[in-house]
Design goal:
The structure is a single chain. With 610 residues, this protein is of the alpha+beta class. The protein folds into 3 domains: 400 residues, Thiolase/Chalcone synthase (Peroxisomal Thiolase, Chain A, domain 1, 3-Layer(aba) Sandwich), CATH 3.40.47; 37 residues, no CATH class; 141 residues, no CATH class. The protein is 25% helix and 18% strand. The strands form 4 sheets. Strands 5-4-6-7-1-8-15-14-9-10-12 form an 11-stranded mixed sheet, with helices on both faces. A 5-stranded antiparallel sheet has the order 18-17-16-19-20, with no helix packed on it. The longest helix has 18 residues.
């Protein structure tokens, strides 16, 4: 059994990035996604003070927030509204990220039901639990359990907590950290191991490390690894300000001589992994291949939050002990990059020591950290870096490092072969070698390093496969038996039923690129049916593996994956606040390039039913 593990699907939602394509564009554009704290989270004026010595205050004004964390398509997942009301929004955000990752991997939400699929989640804190149990804390405060009892009339005491939802049967269970992984497994009926890991900032990368171990051991055949963090209260912002880790300039500048701390961020991400031979057998799209992984802890040191150079070096050595190439073959490293003088110098120093001591040739490696774009996403930081490293390999592009001008003198980058990219550029090609990269995350509980590589793309099989195609969802099998599908039959009328549709079709559009508004007429009059994928019952796969059983005889093509500009190849979310879809017709523009396994770019357009 091979020890190599392939990443075959990814999904994420980070500040100012609602999907994988937006996340990659923000990284390539070196976009800083921070904003001032809005009143939707908390009244920041109550906790803000420019003085770093102010008690129970923070000097930071900006945070990397995810937009609209209240919305959730509960009916699509079959979750009762009463349960969703007391459910940690982190679990809801994670469900969306996992669903997108499964669809990106060519797997429907029901195709893995009952299989040995493991769920490994990194999560550290549930701030929603603090909010939803605030009624109990308020009553304790009014009773004087934390000080003097205030003399307030009973009606005023009741008014303080009248807008807080009382505890329900699922309140506590819906906010436990271990329920994050359990909710994913229960929703998608996954029968492998499912548990949540708390390893501080490295939680989600430790989750990915465990997923690799379980795949190598044969415990599960498919693994979903990810992490999530939502900043719903000012607790972490105030707490990290007290130790000076938060940037007073509201900017995160890893490796820069102006670095003065990080900006707090939030988000969720998930990756779908399989053993390499299984992914190749199934014809899966492979973003990157994990060749080696290492994990350790510093042990005794100056403190749990102070990294030791020896611990950093040991983690790198453990990861590279599993690979056969020397470190000079690595062209990109996604570092932890906390933008602190001690943290950056320790991490880069360990990299320099290992590379210089084991390199067999000249070193040419780019250093980067996504924290400059989205901030420190805490328990989701590991998967944010892993997704970025996989996209760097897949897109053969090294993005510019945001908020970087001049390297810090303590890093010693001059003459070391390491550099911080200031402009987005192609990944340097090395004859006969695949692209290779590394990703690292550190936390108070563990430190994890992964080494990834990207295999060469296969040549295009024919020029015909390069033609653009429209991908449509059909609700009736008869719609494409003897005639091209029309938009009247290929509509997404109910988002919660999309996983049960029996057929998915592709049509070739006319040579001229039609406008989205003319899709209905074009699909019905000028399109040509080329292939379809069917199955019986609700477990229809997004990409079938057998020829059509209803008469067309064609072999199904692989469902397109989003790389740039798409909404994760899923139907429009519509009016998500009420749980009902607001858009009825969804089509996918697939710009095929090479074989159906190639890394094609895809975009999505949604047209409202007239």
């Amino acid at each position: 059994m091979s020890r190599d593990v392939a990443i075959v699907g990814m999904g994420c939602r980070f500040p100012q990035a609602s999907d994988l394509g937006a996340y990659w564009r923000n990284i390539c554009d070196a976009r800083v996604c921070f904003s001032e704290v809005s009143g939707e989270r908390w009244n920041h004026a109550l906790f803000y003070d420019p003085s770093p010595r102010a008690i129970d205050k923070t000097y930071a004004r900006k945070v990397g927030f995810v937009d609209d964390v209240r919305s959730f398509a509960a009916l699509h997942y079959g979750l009762a509204p009463l349960r969703v009301a007391v459910m940690d929004p982190q679990h809801r955000l994670l469900l969306d990220a996992v669903r997108v990752a499964l669809e990106d991997a060519g797997r429907g939400e029901a195709t893995l039901a009952g299989t040995r699929t493991g769920v490994f989640v990194g999560a550290s804190v549930s701030e929603y639990k603090d909010l939803i149990t605030s009624r109990l804390r308020a009553r304790a405060l009014l009773d004087g359990q934390f000080g003097r009892a205030p003399r307030l009339p009973a009606e005023i005491a009741d008014a303080i907590i009248e807008d807080v939802m009382p505890l329900r049967a699922f309140t506590i269970a819906g906010n436990l950290l271990n329920m994050a992984a359990a909710t994913v497994a229960q929703t998608f009926d996954l029968r492998g191991p499912a548990f949540t890991i708390d390893a501080a900032c490295s939680s989600s990368l430790v989750a990915a490390y465990d997923a690799v171990l379980y795949l190598r051991a044969g415990v599960c055949d498919v693994a979903v690894a990810g992490g999530v963090y939502l900043n719903l209260t000012p607790d972490n912002l105030v707490g990290f300000s007290r130790i000076g880790a938060i940037s007073p300039s509201d900017a995160c500048r890893p490796f820069d001589d102006r670095a003065d701390g990080f900006v707090l961020g939030e988000g969720a991400g998930a990756v779908v992994m399989k053993r390499l031979e299984d992914a190749q057998r199934d014809g899966d799209r492979i973003y990157a291949v994990i060749r080696g992984a290492g994990i350790n802890n510093d042990g005794r040191g100056e403190g749990p939050m102070t990294p030791r150079p020896e611990g950093q070096l040991d983690a790198i050595e453990r990861a590279h002990a599993e690979v056969e190439f020397s470190p000079d073959a690595i062209g990109f490293v996604e570092a932890h990059g906390t933008a602190t003088a001690v943290g950056d110098a320790t991490e880069v120093g360990a990299l320099r020591r290992y590379f210089e001591g084991h390199a067999r040739g000249p070193i040419d490696c780019a250093l980067s950290s996504v924290k400059a774009n989205i901030g420190h996403t805490m328990s989701a930081a590991g998967v944010a870096g892993l997704i970025k490293a996989a996209l760097v390999l897949d897109q053969a592009t090294i993005p510019a490092q945001a908020a970087f001008a001049r390297p810090h003198d303590k890093l010693g980058l001059a003459g070391s072969g390491f550099h911080v990219p200031t402009a987005t550029a192609p990944f340097p090609e090395r004859p006969g070698q695949p692209r290779r990269a590394g990703s690292a995350r550190s936390g108070s509980a563990a430190r994890t390093v992964t080494s990834c590589s990207r295999r060469r793309r296969r040549a295009a099989r024919s020029t015909r496969s390069r033609m653009p195609r429209w991908w449509l969802r059909c609700r009736r099998r008869s719609s494409c038996r003897r005639r091209p599908p029309s938009c009247s039959t290929c509509t997404s009328a109910r988002s919660w039923a999309r996983s049960t549709w029996p057929c998915r079709c592709t049509t070739s559009p006319p040579r001229s690129r039609p406008a989205p508004a003319t899709l209905r007429a074009s699909a019905s009059s000028r399109a040509r049916t080329t292939s379809c994928a069917r199955s019986s019952g609700p477990r229809a796969r997004l990409c079938g593996a057998a020829p059509c059983r209803r008469g067309c005889g064609s072999r199904p093509r692989r469902f397109p994956r989003p790389i740039d500009g798409s909404r994760s190849c899923s139907p429009a979310r519509g009016r998500r606040r009420s749980g009902w879809p607001g858009r009825s017709t969804t089509a996918f523009r697939h710009f095929g390039r090479g074989s159906t396994r190639s890394r094609a770019r895809s975009t999505i357009c949604s047209i409202a039913r007239s």
